[in-house]
Design brief:
Layout (H helix, E strand, L loop, with lengths): L15 E2 L2 E2 L8 E6 L5 E8 L5 E2 L16 E2 L1 H7 L2 H6 L5 E4 L6 E5 L9 E12 L2 E13 L13 E3 H10 L9
Parallel strand pairs: 4-10
Antiparallel strand pairs: 1-2, 3-4, 5-6, 7-8, 7-11, 8-9, 9-10
């Protein structure tokens, strides 16, 4: 008996690690609605960068193992990436934090009770305005477990309710965070 062919991603090219195809279909773009304080339902389209399943190249890594953006496939990040869609669909009820760069936002999630660390989900949002297609694009830049990173938010980060962030971006109004 043969296995049925693996479902192909509509967004990602076929990707192989050590001769084995890695399915990225769970990282295809998707959309969800976000109710905003002004009474509207804003459409949020999610796209991912390869950093959600790869890590930085380290000394000792074999050059032939490099893939997207000269990064290395990370089995741990890949496994965690299967939870991203569920986490992202929950953002309309969450608070998000501004990174020190002040251009990205981060959501800190603990979605697996057996693990005691935080899952950092870094994303950027922008309004897409086409003639008949206005929506928010949420680009997931990276996602990983609690690692030492210069991009993690400060100890007391500024936060905002996700629906307010979406409404502000859609209306073209910058958010003003108090400095800490």
């Amino acid at each position: 008996m043969t296995n049925p062919p693996q479902q192909q991603s509509i967004y990602w090219d076929p990707f192989f690690v050590d001769g084995r195809e890695i399915s990225l279909v769970h990282l295809d773009p998707f959309e969800f609605a976000c109710p905003t304080p002004d009474g509207n339902q804003r459409r949020v389209r999610v796209v991912y960068k390869s950093h959600v399943f790869t890590r930085a190249h380290a000394e000792g890594d074999q050059p032939y193992k490099m893939c997207f953006d000269k990064r290395i496939f990370c089995p741990d990040r890949y496994a965690d990436s299967h939870n991203l869609q569920t986490i992202l669909k929950g953002l309309p009820t969450a608070r998000v934090f501004q990174t020190w760069e002040k251009r990205n936002y981060v959501f800190l999630a603990v979605e697996m009770p057996q693990r005691d660390d935080r899952y950092h989900l870094f994303f950027e949002v922008k309004k897409i305005s086409r003639k008949r297609d206005k929506h928010i694009e949420l680009r997931v830049e990276s996602a990983y477990r609690n690692e030492n990173s210069p991009y993690a938010p400060p100890n007391r980060p500024n936060n905002v309710r996700f629906p307010i962030l979406i409404q502000s971006i859609f209306m073209g109004r910058p958010l003003a965070f108090a400095s800490r």
